[in-house]
User: Fold these one by one.
Assistant:
Number 1:
Amino acid sequence: MVILFVAVNCATKKQFISKPTKSLVNPDSELLEVNAVAYHINDSITTSYLEIKNENLIYKRPDTTFAFYADLKISYKLLAEPNSKKIIDSSSYYLIDRANETVEIKSIISKFSLKAKNNANYYLDIQVYDLNKKIKYNKGLNIYKKNNFTEQNFLITHNNSISFKTNFLKDETVVVKFSNPSITQITVNCFFKEFGPALPPFSTKVPDEFKYKPDSIFKMDLSTNQFQLTMPRYGFLHITPNPNFTEGLTLYTYDKTFPGVSNSDEMINCTRYLMSKAEFDSCKASTDKKAAIDNFWITIAGSKERARELLKKYYGRVKEANKYYTSYTQGWKTDRGMIFIIFGTPTNIYKSSKTEIWVYGPENSPNSTRFVFNKTPNPFSDNDYILERSQFFKDPYYTAVDYWREGRVYINNGK
């Protein structure tokens, strides 16, 4: 069964076109932001909630009235694994959003039910087709139903709405719902560790091992099918319904500007990939950090105008990295985040259930660079990938960094 939260009668003749205001943070992005969460209702049904940001949708007006419409087709297939030909469940439906002459940036929400039995894992392949723009977007989601303790057995709500994120502000209150009647107590493990940026792709240094050792622990007895938590000042909370398992739900405290960059100190931290140690230490020790990071960008750009362009591009990539690669730490600190910030969008990406391969440059060319990221088990996140490091990455990495330090945005040129 498909339930639409936003729907109107379908329009036919389309003559006039309107778009929402472009993002000020990343105005060059034409990607459609699609978010999805899964919530297990029982041992055979899972509900998938879908959020579509309308920022890059095309709205058309069918006649001379004031109404504009976005026209979408949503298709989904539940597979045994990514790229599998075995389809467990599938369907499609249409989603129409009505707007006035001025289209406001907002989220379009819908949901649909999946026939997904317990004791198995699946892959949900979602396609969002903008019928006005005639462009198709894909969204993939792993569905875990091998036990009753994964995060998909919980549904996060914030301000009485479904939350498609797991990061919140300090002192914000979230409500977590669950449908499994056997959950009568939860353990909340509190972690306050800060993580550093990813090591260079050619580094031979072994990163510090993160041990599952909470800084504090508390338990909650549950008499209803939901509970409420207040977010800490920083760090994250890991909620487990069974103390014998580490699987569960993780909630993070980030600044209000996340996934964007909040202040000069964070700007300095995010720019570590371009800085020498002496430059980084000097900026961190400065009494006027804003002036320090501004001077760094003006120095490498050669002028304030070019520095502004570099800032917009670089921190735009930081924001995108935080959106898509955040795991138990901010996305810009991860291996994929580092490569994305420095090199930009890959020419091609190949994904499997355990691996992502990013290719920069023409396929099968000796000048191409291939980064292999392997998914690693992580009790806090389903989005943790580790790069296979190699000394062969030293030259392309420094080439890309030098582009930035010469005042140019590095974009893949097949190098």
Number 2:
Amino acid sequence: MSQSQQTLKQPVSYSGTGLHSGNRVNMSLLPAPAGTGLRFRRVDLEGRPELEASADHVGDTQRSTSITKGPVKLHTVEHVLAALAGAGITNAFIELDANEPPIADGSSREFARMIREAGILQQAESLEPFRITAPIEFTHGETQMTVLPHNGFKITCTSADKAGRFTQFHSTEVTPQTWEKELSHARTFCFYEEIEFLIKNGLIRGGSLENAIVIRDDAILTNEPLRYPEEFVRHKMLDIVGDLALVGRPIQGHVIAVKPSHFANTEVAKLILTQIRKPIEQAQTFGPPPALSAEKSAAKSETRSAKPEIKAVPASESQAAPATPQAPGAPVLDIMQVMEVIPHRPPFLMVDKITLIEGNRIVGQKNVTMGEPFFTGHFPGHPVMPGVLQLEAIAQVAGILMLRVLESTGKIAYFMSAEDVKWRKPVRPGDVLIIDVTLTKMRGKIGKAKGTCLVDGDVVSEAEVTFMLMDR
């Protein structure tokens, strides 16, 4: 069920010290238009660059959550994100003049107060929460996290140190009301024996009993009584709320966590993003491209020689195609257009043209001539095309399908692995190599494909290849 997007009614500011950096920092929370999401803005840097609160930008997760994109870096973002997400704020700018929000008292209480002071504004646009549809599991050492389908947002958490001290448990449905009452006041904590290590590693430079609880043996060192009987586990839950805000939209699911950490929380956020994106990516990969408007079609026709339109052929129109791929006359992509899609160049370009793109299937052609440089040494007097280059041809043709159909401009498909590789017949000068590839699986940036190379209708090699889509 969709819900209204929300932002702040007015700006509100706070000044303090960063927990790990020790730097003095001024922070302002500002209203933002619908669809903005939660975005940090570094006003101390040239151009006031912005950084979206997204799991795609997670950097270091040692003792806090950092996000980074290019030169823009921010540390310990989880407490302010928890306050915004816990209150139901979906759109806001978080302005900072340093690389870390203020730690305040080590909880989200001060940030919750800021939000109350600013007020909450409902926006006309709605936002559909993401419903967990299948269980998500993550295990790392002693940490175990599971997210199950649930009608609301619930967290059930158990925390303890390595020696099993101060084992605590708490469970609650997280709503704006329960968030502020049950979780937002819980302060960060550490064990006394960890302090020396943290200081030597350049952390907690701004830490003190004013903003953290220290546990030494069985004693609790704090400048005020505990705010909850289970304050430690509740702070772990506060961190989960903040780290999962990096998903970018409200979640409907039940998070069950045992000894959670920032690393585990952010990995779960990435897995949730993968579940969100999977249906979209599958539809883009295996479905036909969206129909073009008449105006766009006319524009495509005018520039066809530079970048032709690729259309998937419906099954009803392709039944007349021969079972064994042949080499049709007019290519879908000629050699110049192939080189617009993939970065490979002679002598390592293993496809001359693309003759067919049909849904999740693609057929390419390589004319094997005596002029190929590899024939010089493979083998003198008995020229044979290396099998690994046939495998490379399969990977290149699969990459063309993935890059072209997904319109992934500026990306490159990196060949990662090959399985069930079989070489059946030699390929010699004068042969026309037909490369027939079907994309079988797509998850996030990783794809799998089944490829077959043929000469005169006979299979000469085949393999299953895995590749990853990356920035060039």
